[in-house]
């Protein structure tokens, strides 16, 4: 019996090793090491300030947020090849994350649906009309959500990967589109907010929100905050979510840079790119019932504030790398 078990384990290990080797086979090396990509260089960096803010962020991170610190402070700004390798376009399973909050996006960029008795609020609309039609809407339907019930599409900021599908949702379902006034201007500019999105057609100019405004649907209220940095009019959001009927306050950071939401009692982290918090991995744990009874999106107030502090410290690190004042 033991011999059979050991043989089975050995066979399984061999199969896994073979599969891993095939999956991790690197592309061919460039002809010369001189052609290898290098990490980003910052010739104007204030080295003392970079070290000081790195130490600040690392202290905040502790062991439980070390991966977030590494990604935001050390990987994302220095190794774009690694970022693009992880944050690539790809299909991921739609997931019900809370009683009223659903992940309906893709691997590279998030989209969220908040279900209320009076209708659905969608946060961000992916890269394009095609993605809204072929990813966002089917993901909603897989989770039992009727896209005809979409009332609002809230755009976190004016880069095209967050609003590219908004016009489709506006035209198809008569959804109201919400953004800050500044980032409406980005969407409507000739460059469409920069990047490879100049050919996108923006949604019809609709609702402008200011710092401290609300988006309300029946008894549900989402607070909007202007948190400039990633774009001049980035929106960060605070809204209620429910885990098995228990209320929590979710904070969605609309762009890099951090921000204080301590007064709102935020204890749930939500981001608009999955890689910013390993959201895809957390969603897999939820789908497989492997959370140990603890929703991995619930951080608690202290851990959430430490996460935001890390984002702020890493923004200062980047400013110091560029030789800018970081205070």
Shape descriptor: globular
Would you tell me the overall average pLDDT?
91
Percentage of residues in strands: 15-25%
CATH topology of one domain: Metallo-beta-lactamase, Chain A
Query: How would you write the strand order of the largest sheet?
Result: 1-2-3-4-5-6-7
Give structural notes.
The chain has 327 residues and is of the alpha/beta class. The chain has a domain at 87-296: Ribonuclease Z/Hydroxyacylglutathione hydrolase-like (Metallo-beta-lactamase, Chain A, 4-Layer Sandwich). It is 36% helix and 18% strand. The chain is built from ten helices and twelve strands. A seven-stranded mixed sheet has the order 1-2-3-4-5-6-7, sandwiched between helices. Strands 8-9-10-11-12 form a five-stranded mixed sheet, with no helix packed on it. Helix 2 runs antiparallel to helix 3 (66-75), helix 2 runs antiparallel to helix 10 (301-321) and helix 3 (66-75) runs parallel beside helix 10. The model is unreliable at 1-6 and 9-17 (pLDDT under 50).
What's this, in brief?
The protein has 327 residues and is α/β, with parallel strands linked by helices. It has helices spanning 2-23, 47-61, 66-75, 80-86, 129-142, 160-163, 166-173, 181-188, 279-287, 301-321, and strands spanning 95-96, 101-103, 112-116, 119-123, 150-154, 176-180, 207-209, 214-217, 220-226, 235-243, 246-253, 268-271. The N and C termini lie far apart (67 Å).
